């Protein structure tokens, strides 16, 4: 593994350069703004590329030293991609709601995580949990689901993170303040309406568009995987002789992620079509639209390359969704 290459073209295609309307800007972002077009601020990608590279190097170094990286993105369009990137890189995430004191009051959070584990044990059919009535089990199940949404991504973290990666600095202001108070470095995407002060590794870019979030989360995940590979290499571990397969490249790449399959549109399904409504955001109407386009099976979505994903999203006018479908399809086929 090596650090992922950051190309200006990839950032442009993902719309990373688009900021907010000019009247919504934060003057502290002036140094990162290239200009204005149609009353929309355009961010200077010539600065984004080296700053992003700097952040990726730091993330890789942190993981290589045995550190933990916490992905934070609770806005709707980022939730799925943040969780997916963190899981694929063996890191941790918060994508539902940032609980006040999640870093500065870690002792209390640890107790809540212990409670979550206890509830899972009770509801798993152990002797201790069999004596509950149906109503009691329902109450415990709801409590477990609530804790899992809030703490599921950090349940195995075991302590404070060594670096946090934030999608929206305005929405995650509390998380950033807690990290600053504890001296934890912060790498964050800063849009034209954000305040870059206090961000250790600012990455000027679009923090709203789905495609931009997918690309940046993927790059950070790849940097973390690179750190894991370096740590294993330094320890003298023979990766080829490992009993368990070592996580290296489960990440979306320019080549199909589903074995020898390549993406192709079909005139009709091969056998029974897959239920595409299991994918996030796909209802009966969108499933019909996908079928009309020639997509009937999970393997077709799983085989999408980055370039093909962009084409499909443009043809179907579903910006930022196809990459998420491809990732879910790979999980369903695993």
TrEMBL record:
GO terms for biological process: translation. Pfam families: Ribosomal_S2. One of its GO terms (cellular component) is cytosolic small ribosomal subunit. GO terms for molecular function: structural constituent of ribosome. InterPro entries: Ribosomal_uS2 (IPR001865), Ribosomal_uS2_bac/mit/plastid (IPR005706), Ribosomal_uS2_CS (IPR018130), Ribosomal_uS2_flav_dom_sf (IPR023591). Keywords: Ribonucleoprotein, Ribosomal protein. Coiled coil: none annotated. The keyword Hydrolase does not apply. SUPFAM superfamilies: Ribosomal protein S2 (SSF52313). PROSITE patterns: RIBOSOMAL_S2_1, RIBOSOMAL_S2_2. Belongs to the universal ribosomal protein uS2 family. HAMAP family: Ribosomal_uS2_B. This is Small ribosomal subunit protein uS2. The lineage of its organism: Bacteria, Pseudomonadati, Pseudomonadota, Alphaproteobacteria, Hyphomicrobiales. The gene is rpsB.
């Amino acid at each position: 593994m090596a650090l992922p290459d950051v190309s200006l073209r990839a950032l442009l295609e993902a719309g990373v350069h688009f900021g907010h309307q000019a009247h919504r800007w934060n003057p502290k972002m002036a140094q990162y703004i290239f200009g204005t077009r149609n009353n929309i601020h355009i961010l200077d990608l010539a600065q984004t590329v080296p700053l992003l590279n700097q952040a990726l190097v730091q993330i890789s170094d942190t993981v290589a030293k045995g550190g933990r990286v916490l992905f934070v993105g609770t806005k709707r369009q980022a939730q799925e991609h943040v969780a997916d990137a963190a899981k694929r890189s063996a890191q941790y995430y918060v994508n539902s709601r940032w609980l006040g004191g999640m870093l500065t009051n870690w002792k209390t959070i640890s107790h809540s995580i212990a409670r979550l584990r206890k509830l899972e044990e009770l509801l798993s059919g152990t002797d201790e949990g069999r004596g509950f009535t149906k109503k009691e089990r329902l109450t415990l199940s709801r409590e477990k689901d609530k804790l899992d949404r809030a703490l599921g991504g950090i349940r195995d973290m075991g302590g404070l993170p060594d670096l946090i990666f934030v999608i929206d600095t305005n929405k995650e202001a509390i998380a950033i303040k807690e990290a600053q108070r504890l001296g934890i470095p912060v790498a964050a995407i800063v849009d034209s309406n954000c305040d870059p002060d206090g961000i250790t590794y600012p990455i000027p870019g679009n923090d709203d568009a789905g495609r931009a979030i997918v690309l940046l989360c993927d790059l950070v995940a790849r940097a973390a995987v690179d750190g894991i590979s370096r740590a294993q290499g330094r320890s003298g571990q023979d990766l080829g002789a490992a009993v368990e397969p070592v996580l290296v490249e489960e990440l979306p790449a320019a080549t199909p992620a589903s074995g020898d399959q390549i993406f192709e549109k079909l005139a009709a399904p091969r056998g029974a079509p897959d239920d595409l409504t299991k994918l996030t955001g796909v209802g009966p109407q969108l499933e019909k639209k996908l079928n009309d386009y020639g997509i009937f099976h999970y393997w077709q979505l799983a085989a999408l390359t980055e370039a093909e994903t962009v084409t499909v999203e443009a043809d179907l006018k579903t910006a930022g969704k196809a990459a998420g479908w491809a990732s879910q399809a790979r999980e369903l086929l695993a």
